Amino acid sequence: MTVVLDCASFRDALTVSTPTYRVLQRIPVEIRRVDIGDFEASFRAANIAISGSDSHDALQALVVEILDTFDLLLEEHKLGPDAAEQRRILSQYLART
To answer: How far lies 33's CA from each of 4, 9, 18, in Å?
Structure first.
């Protein structure tokens, strides 16, 4: 199953209080069942994936993981090539306001 996160659905998936983020373009997310009671949600372009006990949990965990990764990469000044590429990709989809 492929889910596309726009601004409203991205905010709806958040369950914790966070700084304000702006979604610049829809974020393609894949959710797949790995096993009974185990789902994986991934944003392949940014090389981010995480699992959950159901598709909803996996999606919520992925949103938090995307934001945590984005924040960490924005705060780092010296990045290796892989991390710099991940920051570049995430910056095409998200911005902090």
So the answer is: 17, 21, 28
